[in-house]
Sequence to fold (532 residues):
Amino acid sequence: MLMVESLDCGYGATQVLRDFSLAVDRGEILCLLGRNGAGKTTALKAIMGLVKPSAGRVLVDGTDVAQLPAEAAPLHGLGYVPQGRRLFAELSVAENLEIGLMAGDKAGRGGPAAARRDDALALFPVLRERLNQRAGTLSGGEQQMLAIARALCLEPSVLLLDEPTEGLMPAMIARIREVVEELRRREVAILLVEQRVDAVLQIANRVLFVENGRSRETVEAERLRAEPALLDRYVGVGH
Amino acid sequence: MDFGPFFLLAAMEGAVGAAVLAVTALGLSLVFGVMRVVNVAHGEFYMLGAVIAWWVTSLLGVHPALGFLAALIVSPLIVGAIAGAAERLVLTRIHYDPEATIVATIGMLYIIQQAVLMTYGPDARPVQPPFDFRIQLPWFGYSGYKLFVILAAALLMLAVWWGLTRTRVGLMMRATQFDRETARAFAIPVDTVYGGVFAVGAMLAALGAVLVTPIQQAHYLMGHDPLLLSFIVVIIGGLGSLRGTVLAAVIIGMSDGIISVFFSPTLAKIIATLAVAFVLVWRPQGLFGERPA
Ligand SMILES: Nc1ncnc2c1ncn2[C@@H]1O[C@H](COP(=O)(O)OP(=O)(O)OP(=O)(O)O)[C@@H](O)[C@H]1O
Ligand SMILES: [Mg+2]
Fold:
């Protein structure tokens, strides 16, 4: 579904990603695990076309989106939940969702807008009561739900989530995990950046370790659960 | 004339000025709000709007009302096209860098001004008002056209407000304003939005100018005052705040008109500029701006 092949990219003169590759399939969760500053967020931005790679390809169903302008990525079914939510804080909840719906309309994806909206709101019913509230005034958890719902409004076939549980309470984390699992059941390809190792082990199908902007090993989550020592090498758990 | 009627007259003149100013300043405010750049050539787009209005009406040579209507449509379109082209040719190449944009638009200012001087010449030329209707008040008669200007400006501002808050294009503009990068991640063509906003900003200046030409003659240097007053309005109203821009235009336009009538236009400008200084010291985000810029 999503294949990234030997991506090089960075900001201006500083190169961040080197020879970065990964692959995610439909109905699969691939977790990126790596230290702070390893380049996880940069990898997601590069896939979305927000940082231009100097080499490599980003294939979505066989189309190389790395060569297209950033606004084309959502048209190929890429949904993005950025780190820190990045809601349009001055706009209402309904308007934030509308922006996701507009992207879906342009892509000509999925069902009619009203159905996509109902679908996204069905996963996060609390948002329905707050449609006219300014997004910036929502609680942290509600903001995260809105960020995910906004991306779901375009009915993505690939969903990129960058630390969606950052700073949230356990109940909210559980809710988000349920939604992500539900999306996996719906055959969405999911690329998840997550810092908490226990959460990764519970939800991931496979884990990709990122170190200094390079993609290292990809390991089956099951193997990782059996041999936690593998984790030490890349994320230094227990040090 | 007694003080009362005299004051009423001054206030009506002020209201006309405020109406035109609100439309013009809204263009500057929109460009600053969405693109975060200062368009120093804004006053020249205004001047260009007036000159093209004269050109259209005199070239057509039809009934003043028809000529005016044609100018009201053609002039903003031409000015919008010129602004759009300038944006593509220049501003995209400097990536909307704030400082470089100021310098680039100063360049545009002189190019437009000198081009108009070379073709249109140094004369001031009038456009006939579309109708000659006068309203007779107990103390004095007042031009019906001037009241029409106030109405037209109010309708224009309602249209802009509606476009920004009730349409998808407006939503794209606002999303671009608040977070460019995330907007792109949701398929909003930020470059096209920028080009469009710059063109629409210039078109609003042109519309303000077309409304003004039957009152004030078209001249190649007429863009200075509107630029200065628009800056004052945008700063006082709060950068990028639509409501603030309109309210500040009313305050500044009214006081400019009234002080000009009772004292002198120069004093009016001095007071308005002082007001900006005070606002910048005590409330840098503007009277109605919500967050510090
Ligand atoms: N806009 C930018 N300009 C320059 N350098 C940047 C920029 N954004 C990120 N970097 C650098 O790129 C490197 C990777 O950053 P990135 O945000 O991708 O890390 P990350 O793995 O997501 O970290 P975290 O876990 O803290 O979110 C860091 O060294 C960072 O300083
Ligand atoms: Mg990150």
In short: Chain B touches chain A through 17 residues (CB under 8 Å). Strands of chain B lie at 134-136, 141-143.
